[in-house]
Write a structure and sequence with these properties.
With 268 residues, this protein is an alpha+beta fold. It contains six helices and 13 strands. Strands 1-8-5-10-3-2 form a six-stranded antiparallel β-sheet. Strands 4-9-6-7 form a four-stranded antiparallel β-sheet. A three-stranded antiparallel β-sheet has the order 11-12-13, with no helix packed on it.
Length: 268
Amino acid sequence: MQNVFLHNEVYQKIKTDGFYIGSLLTDKEVKQLRSSYIELKNKLGHTFGKNFWPSGRYPDPEIRNFAKDAIEKVVPKALEKYIDTNNTRLIGGTFLIKPPSIKSALSPHQDSSHVDERRTFSVYAWIPLQNVNRWNGCFHYLPESHTWGIDQRSLNVNWPLKDKVEAMSKMMKPIKMKMGEVLFFHSALIHSSPPNYTFKTRVAINYYLHPKDHPFLHFYEDEKTPTGKVEMFEVNPSYFYDEDFEKRPSSKYKQLDIIEKSPYKIHL
C-alpha cells in the first residue's frame, strides 16, 4: 500500500479501524465553503427537496463542476497538513446536503473503489460544515466492514449487500464531530447517516484522495459483461464531472481487464 499520509499513525489507524478523525478547517474556511453552498442553492433555483442531495450526482455537469471548483478553492490546501502530495492525487469533492426531513437518511453503502483494492486502497475525507450528531445526520460506520473484501464497487456494479441493508442499519455506530473536522475513511468502509431531525440543513463535503502510482479506475457491468465478472476501465476524474457516468464508458477510455469479482466474507 502506498501511504498517502505524512504521518504513519494516520495510515495505520485507517488500515486497522477504517477511519481517523482530526482538525482541518479554520472558521474562515468553513464560512467560505458555506457561502459556496448558498451560491449553489441559488444557482439551482429551487430547494434541495426532502431527500439526501449530493452535488456529484446532479444530472447537470455545470452544477457538478461548480461545486467541485468551490471546494477546490479551500480543501486541497487544508489537507496538506495530513497528505503527502508527492504520493497523492487530490481528485475532487462534492457537497453532501441533508435537508431537515425524515426522508433525508442515507442507507448503509460503500463508496466507489477507484483503485484495484486487491493491491491497495484509497481514502475519502468527510468534512462537516457544522457540528454533527445523531440528530442532524452524522457519519455512521459499520466496524471492520472495510476488511470484508468487496473490492470492485461503483454505481454500475451490483452491490452484493443490498439485501442486508436493514440488518446493517441496526449495527451502525455514530461518530460525533465538530465543525471543520475531517474524517478520513477507508474507501471500503460501510457507512450511512440517519435523517436530519433538526430545523437546519446539514452540509458536509466528501473529498477523494488517490494513491498517485495507481491508475484511476472505474468498475462496470451490464448485460454484456460475462457472468461473475466485472470490467475495469481506466478513466480520468473529469469523467465523473463532465459525462454521463452511469452509461458504459466510451471507446476513448481504455478497458484494462475483465476480472473475476473478488470473494468476500461478511460478518453480520
